Please model this.
Amino acid sequence: MSLLKRFLPFVLVLSLVLAAISCNDDWLRSEYDTSIQWEGGFEGPLVFGNLNLRDLLEQFDSTGYVSEDSTGLLYAAYSKDTVLSAPEILEIKDQQFLQVFFRADTVIPGWWLGAVGDTTRFTEDKGFKFERRGEERIDSVYVKTGETRIYVRSSIKHEGILTISSDDVFLNGQKYNEVITISDASGTYEQTFNIPMDGATLHLDNSATDSSSMDIRFDYDLINSGNDILVGEEVQIINSFHNLEFSAAFGYIPFDSLLVDKAELEFSLLEGTFEGVIKIANPRLNITTENSMGIPFGIELLDLEAHFKNGSGLAITIDPSANPVIIDAPTIEQVGESVISKTKIDTNNSNIFQAATSNLTGFQYSIRAIANPEGPRDNFILDDSELGINIEGLVPLNLKIQDLVLGDTLDFSIPADNDFNLGPEDIDYMMMRIETDNTMPIDLGIQIYFVDTTRNWIYLDSLFLDDRELFLSGVLDENGRVIQGMPKITEVEFSRTQIEHALDANKMLMKAFAETAEDGSRFVKFYADYSLDFKLGMRVELNLTLEPDQNNK
Model:
């Protein structure tokens, strides 16, 4: 369509010829007051060139939507990206292991604890439940940042040594072992310790199907001060993990969420006002994913609907075998790498062909992501892992055009001069010659109307006596590709009436009529090397009488 609209204005070059005769008439003037009869004219080429689709795209396709494939076939592509990041998949919740470590239910005499300075050990060793966000079963977590917080409160009037250790936690390359000295025997000891966990490793026990746990051992060595322990006195310990962010996690990581809710992939290739029908042979939606998570996904397209210029919609149904799309994942040997998967929704697995008309404005879609669609398995995820989803609407320019009409209106006037006005009686003969060689797969018809807008848009005349002048499509092979151009020479002799009307017009209304080959019944392919070669020439014969200039003596 762009090609047609760009070609039509060249017809206006006929006005340039008429302008040429009035550019400079000084050489016609005489020092004598006599009239001069001048007979002459103009004949020759006005403009010639080659309108190449590739060149036109480079010049006018500022959007970059239209490209060519390796064969030169033109296509328009419109796409949107969605990214699912690792923190959206897995979040390590804050953990709080509450432990009322020691509490006296009866009075314990000081002598029962031995001599002053003797130690009595109290031990608690068990698996503490590790809180989960969902149904994930994590085997190990490599901590990027975070901290462990240890709160200790003692109301017994004895000093002590608290040791917290775990074979399931490694910090700075060593098994976790934290020693806290309770050096206050007043019974009012209370202290909180914050210990960085950057670089730590957590190992979890998933032997129970519905929970995860972490083994932590608490050893409290009470140093006897000789005081009794009264009823209700206690040693309380709360060990918690806060603000844990992972650098890597391993285990089973489920996920099921609506990532995109009724997004719109808008088309602009067929914008504009025109009559006729354009049918697209094989539009499709390409789905390209780049997955660096060690988690396979099912990508399900929901609410898929084609939208049209009149506001209506068409539900696009997809074969269940193609929806959801199963997305591969890197293996444990490919940690840090990405796996790219591609699939397409086309005429082979959907009814998308029903939407392939010039009224199409875009597609609506939603995306649901389902982790491990084929059942639980071992997964891994890094903090910078992503699942990138690109939805691309692809429209190859494999078209069928029927009764397409494009129109445009441009200013038009025969130039005048201060010394004389060009009238119909001054033009003896006017003829325009058009030579074309059409290597595009469209039959192109052109008609030009001379219009006077000062009198309520009166149509004065047309350039061609027939309904239109037709330039036939190039010769096609069985695959719809032009293999030979179609040359044509057209000569238009202006009648006296046409000349008069041309001089009276102030606008030119141009219409182009286009169909693909064989009366628009056949799909044809548009390649970047298609072109329209053209030459326009004009012959004008004039008969002018120049009146003497009274001021030129």
Remarks:
- The chain is about 5% helix and 55% strand.
- The helical segments are 2-7, 14-20, 53-60, 86-89, 496-504.
- The CA atoms of residues 4 and 512 lie 7 Å apart.
